[in-house]
């Protein structure tokens, strides 16, 4: 498992791992789901094996989305503005890195869509 990305700043979040293009885990174990976006699924997602009509099962793009989010997070302080929880218990949040909205960053690159 890769070492946690520890970011230096008083209000910055420590990010332990990036699951996919719209979900990551903090060093404290909190699962964060970037609000208002949907990124492609990765292999093994039950959404794709159950053939849910709204599932986005482009695995190559899913890997690219995950890697882009991971690279963005590594560039600077991460701010998490929490707004609630989703049905899976993840924290919904607007996430910014160096003042850049992570969701908008992924959408602009075709690696996520508005939800």
UniProtKB/TrEMBL annotation:
Residues 9-115 form the TNase-like domain. Transmembrane segments: none annotated. It comes from the Bacteria. This is Nuclease.
């Amino acid at each position: 498992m890769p070492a946690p990305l520890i970011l230096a700043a008083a209000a910055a979040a420590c990010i332990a791992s990036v699951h996919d293009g719209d979900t990551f885990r903090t060093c404290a174990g909190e699962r964060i789901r970037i609000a208002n976006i949907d990124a492609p699924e990765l292999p093994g997602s039950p959404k794709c094996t159950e053939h849910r009509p709204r599932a986005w099962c482009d695995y190559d793009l899913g890997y690219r989305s995950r890697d882009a989010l991971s690279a963005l997070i590594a560039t600077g302080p991460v701010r998490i503005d929490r707004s609630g929880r989703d049905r899976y218990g993840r924290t919904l949040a607007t996430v910014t890195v160096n003042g850049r909205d992570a969701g908008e960053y992924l959408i602009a690159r075709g690696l996520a869509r508005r939800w």
